[in-house]
Amino acid sequence: PPGPKPWPIVGNFGGFLVPNFIWRRFGGWGGKDVPKSKTRALISPQVIITEQAKVYGNIYSMWVGSQLVVVLNGYEVVRDALSNRADVFSDRPEIPTVTIMTKRKGIVFAPYGPVWRRQRKFCHTTLRNFGLGKLSLEPCILEGLAVVKSELLRLSEEDTEGSGVDLTPLITNSVSNVISYIALGQRFHHADREFGALLDLMARGLEIIANSAAVLINVFPLLYYLPFGVFREVRQVERDITAFLKQIITRHRETLDPANPRDLIDMYLVEMLAQEAAGETDSSFSEDYLFYIIGDLFIAGTDTTTNTVLWMMLYMVVYPDIQERVQAEIDAVVGPDRVPSLTDKGSLPFTEATIMEVQRMTVVVPLAIPHMASETTEFRGYTIPKGTVIIPNLWSVHRDPTVWEEPDDFNPSRFLDDQGNLLRKECFIPFGIGRRVCMGEQLAKMELFLMFTSLLQAFSFRLPEGLAPPAMHGRFGLTLAPCSYTVTVRPRR
Ligand code: HEM
Question: Residue 324's Cα: distance from chain center in Å?
């Protein structure tokens, strides 16, 4: 496919890295709150990548160093590749920093094939079972929300100056606790040191491999062994996370009661025993694999959901009229005396439409997770060589003017019909599409609904007096996070 001319050695990423580096000197790519006048000058990477499609077409090539990357834009092309040609476009590339961290085990970065399929099927079924039965997730999510609400109440009382509250730590803790409950069978208090340390470690690991000189390991893998700076830190973070999770798995093995599994670790250990008993000699189910699956659940399931909730709250303070309409719907259907539950979902179409519209506008995983062509193939008139990295540009799908009217406008009503019923739109794909579609989609939707409705039932959120909203393009990292902001919180009753 055609594409922009690459720079020597660095390829087209020179075009990103150099302005990115300069921009960071002045406060980050939205990393800190950048004055609005400055943000007009530079645009976020997902926007640049989408803009380039206007020049080179919906399928275009770029080079990252010597690696050929093909970017797919717009709904039709992305669906054609990931759904209709899933057999060729469902593999994952080998990215040195990611391979170091994951050993290509787990689910997210595992190569497409029978091992990935079996592991994903097991985890998917287990996650689904958590929605039901005695390990039901709804009470766990609501329990976490009760803590968030009482903390918000306290913080709102302390905020006598009206400078506002940062919602990030509370939401992060609540979301991480859901994964922790599923995977480790434990919920942690938001002030728990051990859990806080694990979350910090994971966040630090992601930050280093995505946003520091450690990205150079992807070009020169031997840098990983350097005994100083971020390179040494990468190895230390890797060792610390390994020690923490291995200790938890060992504790589970020692106290396992196969008749009463407590969480995903127990269920996995039971499956291992069953396969051993059945004489499966080439089973991929092992404690080693389990370790990477847990890491995947934390990494894929916390940042994504947390940032989506933070985006939802930001949109509500920027569009207070929509916030009031959502609250009116919740008041009419749920009332003040009980907390919203999943059974209310079907009766709150405007609320659901608002959640979907925030997800459409913001796309927290804007470029999905890189795919790879597992063989040389013809695709819509182009030859795509085996090993090509494929970037499905989900951002472009959600801003595609051929399928969305006025795509840059925030308008929840686009998801409603004339009678106010919810419309399902197949070009709405914040969780991706095809065989690699997000494994936690159902869980995430449950969390988003319960958190959004519970928070808006209990509180009204506003921007602190005299403060402009942050730049709405967000911070581009592994996920697209909103730029930091604070809100004033007022209990509704
Ligand atoms: C993959 C979005 C929450 C687990 C993905 C992908 C996207 C995505 C776009 C990549 C699809 C592709 O490669 O084409 C989201 C969003 C979330 C969310 C927007 C929240 C709002 C979760 C949660 C979990 C999870 C809560 C787990 C509990 C995974 C896994 C994969 C994945 C394991 C890799 C699937 C595979 O490679 O087979 N997600 N996700 N995600 N997600 Fe999510």
Answer: 27
Q: Regarding beta strands 389-392 and 67-72, do their DSSP bridges make them parallel or antiparallel, or are they unpaired?
A: parallel
Whether the Cβ atoms of residue 64 and residue 13 lie closer than 8 Å to each other: yes
- Alpha-carbon dihedral angle through residues 190, 195, 199, 200, given to the nearest 10 degrees: 90
Residue 211's φ and ψ, nearest 5 degrees, are -130, 30
On whether ipTM exceeds 0.95, the answer is: yes
Is residue 47 over pLDDT 70? yes
Is any atom of ligand 1 closer than 6 Å to the C-beta of 412?
A: no
Q: Is the CB of 261 under 6 A from ligand 1?
A: no
Q: Ligand 1 centroid to 140 CA: how many Å?
A: 21
State the distance from the centre of ligand 1 to the C-alpha of 154, rounded, in angstroms.
Answer: 33
Tokens representing residue 250 in the block: 């060992």
Q: Outline where 319-440 has alpha helix (H).
A: 320-333, 349-362, 394-398
Q: 103: which residues sit within 8 A by CB, 6+ positions away? A: 292
Q: Phi and psi dihedrals of 480, rounded to 5? A: -90, 110
Cα distances (Å, whole numbers) of residue 255 to 82, 262, 266, 290, 437: 42, 10, 9, 17, 34
Query: Ligand 1 mean position to 468 CA, how many Å?
Result: 32
Measured CA to CA, the distance from residue 15 to residue 233 in angstroms comes to 28
Sequential DSSP letters for 241-303:
HHHHHHHHHHHHHHT--TTS--SHHHHHHHHHHHHHHTT-TT----HHHHHHHHHHHHHHHHH
pLDDT (average), residues 142-153? 93
Tell me how far apart the alpha carbons of residues 470 and 305 are, in angstroms, rounded to a whole number: 20
Strands annotated E in 91-196: none
Six-digit token pair at 72?
């797919």
203-251 tens-digit pLDDT: 777 777 776 777 778 777 788 888 888 888 888 888 888 888 888 899 9
Q: Is 365 in the pocket of ligand 1 (CB under 6 A)?
A: yes
Per residue in 349-382, pLDDT tens? Answer: 999 999 999 999 999 999 999 999 999 999 999 9
- The greatest distance separating any two alpha carbons of the chain, rounded to the nearest whole angstrom, comes to 68
Give the Cα-Cα-Cα angle 100, 102, 107 (nearest 5 degrees).
155
SS3 (DSSP) at 467: coil
The more confidently predicted of residues 299 and 435 is 435
Question: Got the DSSP string for 25-57?
Answer: HTTTTTTS---HHHHTTS--HHHHHHHHHHHH-
Q: Which two tokens stand for residue 485?
A: 């902001």
Of ligand 1's listed atoms, the one at least distance from the Cα of 370 is 13
**This prediction's pTM:** 0.92
